[in-house]
Amino acid sequence: MNEPCAHIIDDDDAIRDALEWQFRTRGVPCRLWAAAEDFLAAWEPAWQGCIVLDIRMAGMSGLACFDALLARRCELPVIFITGHGDVPMAVAALKKGAFDFIEKPFNDKDLIDVVEKALAADAERQRAAAGRETVAARLATVTAREREVMALILEGKFNKVIADELNISMRTVEAHRAKIFDKMGVRSAVELAQMLTGLDY
Q1: Entry pTM
Q2: What residues contact 67, with CB distance under 8 A and at least 6 apart?
Q3: Domain 141-196 classification at class level
Q4: Distance (Å, whole) CA 187 – CA 42
Q5: Where in the numbering of this chain does the HTH luxR-type domain appear (predicted)?
């Protein structure tokens, strides 16, 4: 079950049914859960989408569920449904990384608008992760010597300086540079630097 969807976790049958109808009316795929424990038992790291989580429930609370998800390194955006007295708890959850919270009584349209933003954010996260995997796969093809040359290219050094520092010929540096650019799928040192920003290479 890897299609993106909104996971609605709420112990109130009426709220779950109402939200399901609203979500389906707006064309937002969703899956219903009556208890946080059930969701956690089924959760898989590959799931995509977002989580709509009631902050107060019988059994495990929404906050306890959120902490459990953080411990599992779950990256799905979490939107809390809160009562008026729960707002301070929801704000604390935001500081821990929750996506947003909606206060009861809420406008269904507002909730779905936030859910659609969360789904878009998760889709972007998935794209970024796929991009990092592609870069990592390309980096794996770069030899140890090419990595030495690449590090000096990224420092902005000219071919002659690189040749002197590594005690190799200019022609060899040029050959390495061409192979590095080819393997990484870039046309310039600037593109290479942009691709590797934030990565440990």
Answers
A1: 0.68
A2: 96
A3: mainly alpha
A4: 45
A5: 135-200
